[in-house]
Design a protein that fits this description.
globular; 18 strands
């Protein structure tokens, strides 16, 4: 079938809205009519090759929609079912899955490497991280779908595909923050704001939000940050003043630059933990001396999709939404159609937005 989609043909080229031809869903696959796909910094990373990816690529991976058709051998899904799409569905058979680390599944790369459509010249078109959500329709493995309850708004549910699972999961699963511990979140995009909400759910105190955009600090305050700091050279000193002179128990770097990672390390207290959530480029090198590693006894964790086990954590996140503990609408900066995506990618690169919902039908 023909569908409109946001395509990047080569690294560094602008995103454009094109018509592509989707292939029919094969064995174990489903056709999904996209309801919403939110704009994530990882889409930029795929576009500019910070994350290596087959191209041309249909951007978008944080996606929800309705089942529109099923391929041979698909059980458990029917046309019209509301679903969340996973960009890293675990195989449950590899060594990492057996170790209880499905977010490191060694077969996820196969999910990313396939093609799901063709351009007008007959060339293959690849779905971003196996999803390709910035389109009217997409074809994905049925294993990448999780049915959504009817009481969860289908468009907002797209945020559960990456921003919420990564940000909230970084706090609750990766770092295992406890009630009463101090938390600093650096970088208040969709993931960082979700981390602020995760810290509130965990009972952290204080929750210190840091960004260079004042409007994002206001958003963080509305979501549970007890203190907000404008990014600058005095942040470390300000954090120490708010934490008894020690520094924070937990620092979450949601930027991924070498400079912010090293500053986050210095902002954590002696014996504290830095969790790196943002994805940096290959040239971002962070250096530590052997002596400082010993002396400060800090831990460094890295967060891959919030250490998510979708079958275990997604039901709890949905329950947080139901109970009002997790505020999905607060994460949304605006809504656009497919034609608005190229300009929105520019705003995202400049750090001016949190999450923008892309609704193909708009």
């Amino acid at each position: 079938m023909r569908t409109r989609a946001v395509v990047v043909r080569a690294a560094g080229e602008p995103a454009r809205v094109e018509e592509i031809t989707l292939r029919e869903p094969g064995p174990g696959e489903v056709l999904v009519r996209v309801a919403a796909a939110s704009l994530c910094h990882s889409d930029l990373s795929v576009a500019n090759e910070t994350l290596a990816h087959n191209k041309p690529v249909v951007l978008g991976h944080e996606t929800s929609g309705l089942i529109a058709g099923t391929g041979p051998g698909v059980d458990g899904f029917a046309e019209g079912d509301p679903v969340l799409l996973l960009w890293n569905p675990p195989c449950r058979d590899c060594w990492y899955c057996a170790q209880g680390e499905p977010y490191l599944c060694e077969n996820i790369a196969r999910h990313w490497s396939g093609s799901h459509g063709f351009d007008d010249d007959g060339g293959k078109v690849h779905p971003c991280l196996g999803v390709g959500g910035f389109a009217e329709y997409t074809v994905v493995p049925a294993s990448a779908c999780r049915r959504l309850p009817a009481d969860i708004p289908l468009d907002l549910a797209a945020l559960l595909g990456c921003a919420v699972t990564t940000g909230v999961g970084a706090v609750l699963s990766t770092a295992n923050v406890h009630s009463g511990q101090s938390v600093v979140v650096v970088g208040l995009g969709g993931v960082g704001l979700a981390a602020v909400q995760g810290a509130r759910i965990a009972g952290a105190e204080p929750i210190i939000a840091v960004d260079r955009v004042p409007e994002k600090l206001e958003m963080a305050a509305s979501m549970g940050a007890t203190e907000t700091l404008l990014a600058g050279p005095d942040v470390r000193k300000q954090v120490k003043a708010l934490t008894g002179g020690r520094g924070a128990d937990h620092v979450f770097d949601c930027v991924g630059l070498a400079a912010t990672i090293k500053e986050g390390w210095k902002t954590a207290r002696r014996g504290g933990t830095l969790t790196v959530v943002g994805i940096g480029g290959r040239t971002e090198v962070v250096e530590f001396s052997s002596l400082e590693l010993y002396h400060f006894a800090r831990s460094i964790l890295t967060c891959v999709n919030g250490s998510l086990d979708p079958d275990r954590e997604l039901p709890s996140y949905i329950e947080h939404v139901r109970a009002g503990r997790l505020d999905l609408p607060a994460l949304v900066s605006g809504e656009i159609g497919l034609d608005g995506v190229p300009a929105a990618l520019g705003a995202l690169a400049e750090g001016r937005v949190a999450r923008v919902l892309v609704k193909p039908g708009t």
